[in-house]
Design a protein that fits this description.
2 domains, 45% helix, single chain, mainly alpha
Length: 132
């Protein structure tokens, strides 16, 4: 059986939103975030404009109807109710499918978010891993 695509894996997630008022499907919204974040758009305020600037080329490929892209509040509301642990497992499984025989090496990048340190409280640390 061939490996599932990441979009197929994202479809395994249950949509936590109320059925009424769902303007944008779950999988394209998550896929847009997964495309925007590695491009440096790490906040909802940056993900939404990233999608809107590329709506004609990217919108159809990700599954948005008519090229309409969600705003930042739409992402905020989704991320507030989404099961982050389940999403993390789904993304990890999707990446694992792509490298079923293992990785030769993994590139790591770490940083501390600017402005996140507050007095004695250490700053927020981010770690990214990439398997080329």
């Amino acid at each position: 059986m061939p490996a599932l695509s990441l979009l197929d894996r994202l479809a395994e997630l249950t949509d936590p939103r109320d059925r009424r008022g769902r303007q944008y499907p779950l999988v394209p919204r998550l896929a847009l975030a997964l495309v925007a974040i590695p491009a440096g758009n790490t906040s909802v305020a940056a993900i939404a404009p990233f999608g809107r600037l590329r709506r004609h080329r990217l919108g159809h490929a990700l599954g948005f109807r008519n090229g309409h892209m969600p705003c930042a509040n739409t992402f905020t509301n989704l991320f507030a109710v989404l099961d982050a642990d389940h999403l993390d497992r789904v993304i990890g499984d999707g990446l694992g499918d792509r490298h079923a025989d293992g990785w030769d090496h993994i590139a790591l990048d770490g940083q501390v978010l600017r402005g996140s340190r507050d007095g004695e409280t250490p700053g927020v640390h981010l770690l990214a891993a990439y398997a080329p």
